[in-house]
Design a protein that fits this description.
The protein contains 8 helices and 4 strands; from the N terminus they run βααβαββααααα. About 65% of the residues lie in helices and about 5% in strands. With about 210 residues, the protein is mainly alpha-helical. The chain has helices at about 10-20, 35-45, 60-85, 110-120, 125-140, 155-160, 170-185, 190-214; strands at about 5, 55, 95, 100. Helix 2 (about 35-45) runs antiparallel to helix 3 (about 60-85), helix 5 runs parallel beside helix 8 (about 190-214) and helix 7 (about 170-185) runs antiparallel to helix 8.
């Protein structure tokens, strides 16, 4: 029977590429070279055995299958390690969220300070917008809900319910109010703004509590 040689490196590279290219791990393609990082940590697995590869004369069909199962198990563990290590809040690209440019240099603190400044200037419509954007950014930062310019408020609310966020209904109330003001070009009275601001503060606190429980 003709000898068939399986290259450890080729098997490993193809396995890594297949998993990382899947939609589940798309976020791991950003930043550092994940493939190299994984290779450095589990390369010992391949150096521990024969350096010449596996042949049909040296392993059985069952042995080959076990090798592949073990390989994918190690790859899955390594990817989980990097997924937990990497900040989930890292933004993939520049986005425009309700008129606000969000990029890798944007911070929650910066957005909140801008909102506070607009409030002090009594520019309540702008303050409503910026407080809402800062809340969305904070939820992303705390891994509660992904910040995505294409995501609707209805989709965000569904995600919050799925994550068992206890104040998802309050978020729906303030998101409805925000859209009424922003898209309806409505004026904001100071009393209504103070009520809205208090709900934003309650939500920010609840996001932090939810994050600490995870």
């Amino acid at each position: 029977m003709e000898n068939i040689t399986f290259s450890n490196k080729e098997i490993f590279e193809k396995a890594i590429e297949k998993v990382i290219d899947s939609s589940k791990y798309k976020h791991l393609q950003e930043g550092e070279n994940i493939r190299d990082g994984i290779a450095e940590r589990i390369g010992e697995f391949f150096s521990g055995g024969s350096t010449g590869g596996y042949t049909s004369n040296s392993i059985s069909t069952a042995g080959t299958q076990n090798t592949f199962f073990l390989l994918f198990f190690i790859v899955a563990i390594a990817l989980l390690y990097y997924a937990l290590k990497s900040p989930k809040s890292k933004l993939k690209k520049e986005q425009v969220i309700y008129g606000e440019v969000i990029d890798e240099n944007t911070t929650y603190e910066g957005l909140y300070k801008k909102a506070l400044l607009r409030q002090q200037e009594e520019k309540y419509v702008e303050a409503v917008r910026l407080y809402f954007v800062s809340l969305l950014f904070y939820m992303n930062e705390k891994s509660l809900c992904l910040l995505d310019e294409s995501r609707t408020n209805a989709e965000i609310i569904r995600a919050l319910h799925k994550a068992e966020f206890t104040k998802a209904d309050i978020f729906k109330n303030i998101s409805d109010y925000f859209q009424y003001i922003w898209y309806g070009n409505k004026e904001v009275k100071e009393l209504d703004f103070q009520h809205y601001r208090q709900k934003i503060e309650d939500l920010l606190m609840e996001v932090e509590i939810h994050h600490e429980k995870q």
